[in-house]
Batch of 3 targets.
Target 1
Amino acid sequence: MGHVRLTTSLDPPYERLDAEWATLIAIREMLGVALKGRSSPTYEQALEFGKALSPSLFDSESTIIGSKEREITKEYRQRAEAESSLQSKPIEPLEIVDREITDFKAMLNTPGDRDLIGKRLDRLSNVRQLLQPKEYSENQLILRDLFKADRHLPTGSVDVDRDTYREFQLDADRGLRIRLLHPDKPEHTTGADLIYENYWDKRRLVRIAFVQYKIWDGSTLYSSRAGNLEAQMQKLKAVLCDDGYCKRPDGTKKRYRLPYCSAFLLCYCFG
C-alpha cells in the first residue's frame, strides 16, 4: 500500500481536512470492494479502520475528522454562539455554513477564474457533513457499543478483538466478553443482539446479560413501530426466563441491586 503524505501542524486546517476526507473516502471505497457489495460501509466504520491504518492521520491530537473536538467545527460552533449573543436569538452552526455555501455558489457562477472559490466550496461541504446531526441505525449502534464505547476499565486491562466478540482480561481471574449475535442466526434464535459475559474464575462465577437494541421516539415504544419486538422478547423469555436463568438463587439472603433477570431491552432515543 502507498504512503499518505501528512501535513504538518503549521499547515492550514482546511488543507488537513481535505487530506483526511480524501483518505477517508478512499478507505471507504476500499472496504466496499472488500465486502463485495454485501453491505455498504459507513463513514464511521471507515474512520475506525483509518485509525488503525494511519493513527497519525486519524487518531492524533492534530486530526480534524477523528478528534472529539474538531478545530473547524469548534470554530463554527463558537461563531454560532457569538452570533446568537449579538442577535439575541439562537443561531445554529449549520445556518452559518449554509449561508457561506450560498454566497460561494453565487460567486462561483460569475465570469472569470474561480478555481479557488470552488475549492473553498468543497471545503464548506465537508464542514457541513461534520456538523450534521448523526442518525444511527440499530446496526451502527450495536457496532459502536461493541467497538467504540469508553468502558473505564481498570488500568492494565487487556483488550482482544475477534470476529464475533470482544474480550477484556480485567485482572488475573476476571474477564469480560461482549459477544456479537446481530444480525446472524444466533440473534434469530435468542432474540438478543449482544451478550455480555462476566467471568470470575476465583469464585467460579459467570454473569450474563442478553441485550436487544431498539430505537424509539422518546415517549412510547410501540411494537408496531419496532417491527419484530414482540417476537424477540418472547424468544428472550423462552431462552432465559423460562429455562431458569433469571431465577433467584436458593438460599440467597442478600438482595441483588438489580432484578434477577438476564434479558434486557436497550432503547436509544434521538431528537
Target 2
Amino acid sequence: MKKILIAIIVILVAGIGIWYVTSMDKNNNDSSGPVAVVNGDEISRAEFEEAENQFAAQQGTSTDSLDKETREQLKTNIIDSLISQKLLNQAVESSEIVIESEQIDAQMEIFRSQFENDEMFQEALRTQSLTEESLRSKVTIELTTEAYFNEKLNLSSVTVSEDEINTAYEEISATQEVPALEEVREEVRQFVLGQKKRELIFAHIAELRSAADIEILI
C-alpha cells in the first residue's frame, strides 16, 4: 500500500513542511483546565498531552523515560508550538479567506489517487483515525493557511539566486559527501527556497506573538 499523505499532524504550507500540532477545534478541552490562554482562546491540557504523545510516538520512546531537564525543555517547546499554532489559527480565521470547494476536491482526489481502490483509501483513513470529513477539514485548514501566507507574505515571489545555491552547496559539502552540484542543483535550490520561506513565516508568527495576550498556566 502506498503511503497516504494524511498523517496530518504536520501542516505542509507552500511545500516548506513546517511542523505544528494541528487543532482548530475550540471545543477540545478537558476537566483539568487549559495549559495556556492566547488572546482569550484556551489551549486545553488534552491538546498538550496529544502533542506530547505525538512526539513520543515519532521518537519511538515515552516521555516518562526522559530526564527532568529534557522533559521540561520538551514541555516548553510543545507549549511554544501550540501557542504559535493558536496565533496562526486566529490570524487565518480573521483573514476571512475562503477556499473554493473545487480546490479542496482536487486535493482530496490527489490523496485518493494514491490507492488502487476506495477500500484501501478508507482503510488508510481508519488507521489514521480519520474520516473523509475530518480529512477534508484538515485539507481545508492547510489550503487556507497556504493562501493566508501567500497573501500576507507573498511567498510565491520568493526566489533563489545562483550565489545562494552555490553557498548552500558549499556549506553542505563541507560537512558531508554529496554528488556534484549539477546533479543536485534543483534539490539545493528547493532547500534554500524552503529556508527563506520558513524565515518569513517564523518572523510573521513572532510579530503575531509580540502583539498577543498570552498566559501560560503550566
Target 3
Amino acid sequence: MKNLITTWQENKDEAAKENARFVQQLKQYNKTSVDAVVHKMHTKVFKQIDCVTCANCCKILQPYFTQSDIERIAAHMQLSPSTFAEKYLEINNYKEFRMASKPCVFLNANNTCSIYSIRPENCQTYPHTNRVNFNKRGAYISEHTQVCPAVYHILEAMKQEFDKND
C-alpha cells in the first residue's frame, strides 16, 4: 500500500502529459469496452489502496453539494439548510454549491470523515472511475492523477491493458 502511494508521488508529475494523451486515445475505442477495462482496474486498484491512508481528495478538493446533500447533512447537524450552506459552502461561477474551505472541515485528524455515512454524493462516488462513460470524463480523470494515487494507478493499469490488446 505505502509503495503505491510512494510510486504515485514520485511519478505523477512526469506522467501527467502522457496520461492526458492516453485518455484522448481511448476515444478511438468502443465506450463500453473502455468502461469495462476502467471498472476492472478500479476494482483491482481499490483492493490495494486504503483512502484513509491518503485522504488527499479531502485535503485539496472542494466537493460539490446537491440540494439533497445539503438538506441531509444539515438535518444531521440540526441546522437549517440555509444555515449549513452559509456556514460551510460557497457558490461557484456556475451557481453550484461547493465546500468553502480546504481541507474539508469534516476531515478528522486521522484522515477519516466525521460525516462519512451521510457525506455528499460527490464524495461517495469520487474518484468517479467506476461510473459509465469514462471517455466523456477522461480529461477530468486524467487531471485527478495529480490528486489521487488510485486514479494514477488505474490509468497505469489501463495503459498496460490496452497495450496488450493492440
